[in-house]
Give the backbone structure.
Amino acid sequence: LPYPTIPEVLSYSRYHGDPDNPWGEFQKWWNINPREWQLWNWLGQQKLTTLQVQELFKRRYMSESDFSIVLSQIGWPKTYREDIKELSYELPNSMLLVQGGLIGLHTKDTILSNISKAGIHPDYAQNYLDAVLTKPASQDLIAYQLRKDPSLSNLDEELQRIGVHPNYLDVYKTLAYQIPPVADIITMAVREAFTPEIAAK
């Protein structure tokens, strides 16, 4: 069988000897120069990852100067450290950015830009904004269209724009014309406002 490697023996020594000073246990299994031991011991230690450093920085457990130093130790060149700091923070989702932008009276261009910053492709930012903005209720659309055009020629298109399924457009159009109460129908029939045949319907 192959003999365990130095990293494997070092890992064993941390569990079966002093974890903070595994040199004593390590010497029982492998003989290396004490100067080389410092190198192997360091290589066998865990280091903070970039994500862990970002989390510590966000929680204010690590100062900005320490953050930059540790990033350099991990291997990030100076030109990228500000970028890594920027990526430490999460952006609000697109919906929250839209709501905040509307409350803050931001320009449309700013709102669309923020939507894309939160992850929506720029080509679909306008579609996203159109989708999340408040639309009138179907009852409001019907009342508005009745005032503009009693024939409701544009109602189908407006209902589809707010998400009504095409199979149910006729339901909305039919119910848009309210039927008077029975008592009113009888009164109008008596006064000959229309024929008994129409009243019977």
